[in-house]
Specification:
The complex is a heterodimer of chains A (237) and B (459). Chain A is built from eight helices and ten strands. Chain A is α/β, with parallel strands linked by helices. In chain A, α3 runs parallel beside α5, α4 packs across α5 and α5 runs parallel beside α6. Chain B is built from 14 helices and 13 strands. Chain B is elongated and about 110 Å long. In chain B, α1 crosses α12 and α2 crosses α12. The chains are: A alpha/beta (237), B alpha+beta (459).
């Protein structure tokens, strides 16, 4: 589903090059829910931006659904993101002038989907994230947890191959955090959508199927997928 | 992305960003109003002046005078040699008039000899200065004249007056007294009002007897001659839209050629002092030809010129006016466009500000899959919408300005009426939308190039 190959990323500060990611390799299977764990400055956000096609790596390749996104131009990437990638932001990033339903529908607007289909899908997703009665409200009328639910519904509306969640519980209290993680886990199970959750919280990462740990730009923990581990055990045993 | 969605999003932004919308709309509306008002004033003035020219110079008429290579005295001086057309091929004879009448597209042709100004006296001693014109009275209707009273008559001694000649007839004593008073106190508004009201005072002239009076100014005592009694057989109606005051400025008495010959005999002082009719039989100084359409004027003129005659139309007046007003309209358009260009700077500034404020939103949209073209189209549509709204406001302003101008001109007592031709509204709106779109291009490109990652990054 998602394959990261030999990713290296550097940036220039003055006359010096600083490398923030060193030879990163990992694979996420379809329908998996994995965590990218790391402390501040570990390179996890850079990795997320690279996987989402918002940045180009200095070296390496990133394959999503068989497409190398590193080779794509800006408009092709936009089209690819529209079809294959969903985003959940730490600060929700809803458009304040649009209603909850309109916010959820927005990715479909860029795909020229008809209003009636958009509406139907948006309402169904709001139902799934537990806020069907908030459709006509504006984001400013919602709590942080509710806004994050809207953000989750918006990320799902295009039925993407993979959803990137950047610190999805970073702005929430503990109780709401648990609710949001529970929603994500449930959606992963029911929709079989691949989730990559970037977090610095070990408690969040522990609830995912696998956790990739980054430290100072190095991938220090790359556990095999459950299926791979099983076949490996079978091979040796 | 559907046009409906782009338009709705643009409309949402226009509603939401009231300051930006207000700034842009104000700029565009001023520019649009400037264009509409400038074009309207140009068009109104052109219409007004053209109407005036048409009223004074009939565009479908040709004035024919004697012509040809050999100098001609026309019919004015008489003499056996000049009566022989072989010796004066440019002479305007009765035979040539008949040929002209038979030409294609000619509606009417008749001599209109100007016999100068004379005093007309009524039986009750009222007096007015009238211009005497000798013509074939039977053709008056063919020339488009309408009779208010009476009709065509060619009996000797019968005359036709225009409506203006029936206005302002005052007895000589009162007139002299009023002139003297006005001469002594020229700024007296009461006297001026009295004079104006007397100038438009109508008199019943139909079937009345009048006389013409000629004065010999070459002698010190100013010898006076009176014509025999003439009878008013018809009163002409005024042209549409002419008020009494304007009609009173033009007092004309139309007489038949036979009556003119009789008056020449009765009022001549032996010299042509320009104040007595002088018409020679079978040749004319001036013939007026009415043509069915202005489009055929030139072809008829060419035919007439083949008869060794001079032909002159009034179309050059229209062409001259058209050239002048085209220049005025171009200048007005230029001023309007200049104002719009200035206005567009305000739009560029406001929209660029707006783009900067919305960078984060643009970034989110790009992350959600909006491409550069979609972002650009959203901003250009928004700019076009601002242009349209500004244009509509500009149309409203134009009507208010034109209303104000009409009130201003109305109070000055001028008959000039400003109006907004319907064709100027789409022109104004098109310029407004175009300004909006052109001004929105830079902000739209700038917005579409926003780096999504930089835009959504939080410090």
């Amino acid at each position: 589903m998602l394959r990261v190959e030999n990713i290296k990323h550097s940036f220039k500060t003055g006359n010096e090059w600083t490398t923030v990611l060193h030879d990163i390799n990992f694979t996420v299977n379809k329908g998996e829910m994995v965590a990218l764990l790391g402390s501040s400055g570990s390179g996890k956000s850079t990795m997320l931006n690279l996987m989402a096609g918002l940045m180009k790596p200095t070296e390496g390749h990133i394959y999503i659904a068989g497409h190398d996104i590193v080779q794509m131009g800006e408009n092709k990437l936009a089209e690819f993101r529209r079809k294959h990638i969903g985003f959940i932001f730490q600060a929700y990033e809803l458009i304040t002038s649009l209603t909850v339903r309109e916010n959820v529908e927005l990715p479909l607007v860029f795909q020229s989907v008809s209003p009636s289909v958009r509406k139907q899908k948006a309402l169904a997703l709001l139902e799934q994230v537990g806020i069907p009665d908030k459709a006509d409200l504006f984001p400013s009328q919602l709590s942080g947890g509710q806004q994050q639910r809207v953000s989750i519904a918006r990320s799902l509306i295009t039925e993407p191959s993979v959803i990137f969640a950047d610190e999805p519980t970073g702005n929430l209290d503990t109780r709401t955090e648990e609710e949001i993680i529970a929603i994500l886990l449930k959606l992963n199970q029911t929709l079989k959508t691949t989730f990559i959750v970037v977090t610095h919280e070990l408690e969040v990462a522990e609830q995912m199927q696998r956790t990739f740990s980054l430290r100072d730009g190095y991938l220090i923990n790359n556990p095999p997928a459950a299926a791979d581990a099983k076949s490996a055990e079978g091979g040796t045993g | 992305m559907k046009i409906r969605d782009i338009s709705r999003m643009a409309w949402d932004q226009v509603k939401r960003r009231k300051v930006v919308t207000g700034l842009c709309m104000t700029g565009i509306s001023i520019g649009c109003a400037a264009i509409i008002v400038a074009l309207s004033i140009g068009q109104s003035a052109q219409t007004y002046v053209t109407d005036e020219v048409n009223r004074n110079f009939k565009m479908d008429e040709i004035t024919v005078t004697p012509g040809g290579g050999i100098p001609s005295q026309g019919g004015g001086s008489g003499g056996a040699a000049q009566n022989n057309e072989n010796l004066d091929p440019g002479k305007l004879t009765a035979q040539k008039l008949e040929i002209i009448k038979s030409l294609n597209h000619v509606v009417a042709a008749a001599p209109f000899e100007d016999a100068g100004y004379m005093q007309m006296l009524t039986v009750d001693n009222k007096i007015a200065d009238v211009q005497v014109k000798a013509t074939d009275l039977r053709t008056l209707k063919e020339f488009g004249f309408k009779f208010k009273q009476g009709g065509v008559t060619d009996l000797p001694g019968m005359v036709v007056l225009n409506y203006g000649a029936t206005l302002g007839l005052i007895d000589n004593e009162t007139r002299q007294k009023l002139y003297e008073q006005m001469g002594a106190d020229p700024f007296n508004s009461d006297l001026m009002n009295q004079y104006n009201s007397l100038s438009v005072l109508p008199s019943e002239m139909y079937r009345q007897q009048v006389q013409l009076q000629a004065t010999d100014y070459s002698t010190a005592e100013g010898k006076v001659k009176l014509s025999s009694a003439l009878q008013v057989g018809g009163i002409l109606a005024t042209a549409e839209g002419t008020d009494d005051l304007r009609a009173s400025y033009e007092k004309i008495m139309y007489v038949s050629l036979e009556t003119a010959a009789m008056l020449t005999e009765q009022l001549s002082f032996g010299i042509n002092n320009g104040m007595s009719p002088n018409v020679e039989e079978n040749s004319y100084k001036t013939v007026t030809v009415k043509v069915d359409s202005t489009d055929n004027i030139k072809s008829v003129e060419a035919m007439i010129q083949k008869l060794n005659l001079n032909a002159m139309d009034n179309l050059y007046q229209q062409e001259m006016l058209k050239e002048q007003f085209d220049m005025i309209k171009m200048a007005a358009l230029g001023i309007g466009v200049f104002i719009l260009v200035i206005a567009s700077i305000s739009i560029i500034v406001a929209m660029t500000m707006s783009t900067h404020q919305r960078r984060r939103q643009i970034g989110i949209m790009k992350v959600l899959g909006a491409n550069m073209g979609q972002i650009r189209n959203m901003f250009i549509t928004e700019a076009a919408l601002l242009g349209l709204l500004g244009g509509l406001l500009g149309v409203l302003f134009s009507y208010l300005i034109i209303m104000g101008l009409n009130k201003l001109v109305g109070t000055a007592g001028d008959s000039l009426n400003f109006f907004i031709p319907l064709t100027t509204i789409p022109v104004g709106l098109a310029f407004a939308i175009m300004t909006g779109v052109l001004s929105g291009i830079y902000p739209a490109i700038s917005a579409s190039r926003t780096d999504a990652l930089t835009a959504i990054k939080r410090d």
